[in-house]
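Continuing the batch. This is chain 6 of the set; chains 1 through 5 are on the previous pages. Same settings as before, nothing changed between runs. Recording input and output for traceability.
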Amino acid sequence: MSKALVIGAGMVARPLVRYLLEEQGCAVTVADMTVSRADALVSGHPYGRTTELLVDDTAKLGKLISEHDLAVSLLPAHLQPVVAQACIKHRKNVVTTSYVSPEMSKLDGPARDAGVVVLNEMGVDPGIDHMSAMRIIHDVKERGGEVTSFKSYCGGLPAPDCNDNPWGYKFSWSPRAVCTAGKNAARYREDGREVNIPGPDLFLHHHKVPVEGLGELEAYPNRDSLSYLSLYGLENVATMFRGTFRNHGWCDSLKQVVDLGMLDETPVTYPAGTTFAQWIAGLMGQAPAADLRKELAAHLGLEESADVLERFEWLGLLSEEQLPIVDQETTALDVLAARMGRKMVYAPGERDMIVLCHYFTARFPDGSQERITSTLIDYGQPNGDSSMARTVGLPAAIGAAMILNGKINTPGVQVPVEKAIYKPVLDELETMGIRCVERTTPGPS
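Output for chain 6:
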């Protein structure tokens, strides 16, 4: 019986753990800093066990890895190289759902030397986005064509029937990770021109995208699109853009969040009794005002009736309620993430939604052109697994199973852009109802 170690028992872990236990018959150990969370995932399964793990306990991390055939790490991205290094040391394969960071890239040589597979970006974004895109790109090339434009968008949102707060968003994964992503700079190519956007200006660059069945969504750039040019084999493409979907108003609100310094990660100690109103006033560099909304509107250059201020007020940021974190060192980002995580949650029976859309144009030797779209709209299960958990956890689980079964055995740091990986993963996901619908129409003559 294969033995898998799952590190992290957060919001996307359950489908992964249950797939390995129930569909693959693996013995699974779930390690987390909060054992009760791990216990809930295993739920008494005879092949499952749990243990407490703090990632900085390198001795225990190494021991756990050495006792298993493979590790799946669901930790935050900055911790993935720590796990990967331990796996390389003990010659154990590893799967992550995170982007390949520069630190992870540096482990490619050591992983190859050790014969270790380090399979990254096995979630939805990144993950299913790469796999579904490469299926189309390879098909175009096999037919003798050339992709001339590629735009890709993905977002996790409330299902329309559950979209009932002014932010148009609820958290199906880490609030802190969502907020942190709002600090990323972005780079893409548009009609042959390279566009670079510094992190503080990210949310100024948004546009509307029509999605069949959903209407228009708001989209903004997602990190460095150009890093995928060579990986996708699209070095000569005129347009290369990867973006994130949100409902309308998110970008305007997050821009003000950024400008106020709410994403700052400088440690601060807030005195006991500090209120959100005092916190906001402090971010503006002034004492609390009698009419804080009026002062905030003036500070941000907004009308007092602005939707952004309505969203801030709904979140309780102008209230006399006390901060959730006091008398200890924390950051503005932690305060915001904790507040959002408390207010912007799914109620029992509500469902989330993943929307993933690719838009290609392709040119062929006979002069003809095609427009090709790929659309995935997946909904969570009321009172069951969220779509975010399914679309992140299941690709990682399938990838882990393929490694354990010897179907993925090329060592080194890699992502799922090869047909030998993406085809069986996408095929297996389809059996679970997670399917990208592709459509082709004639392009401009």
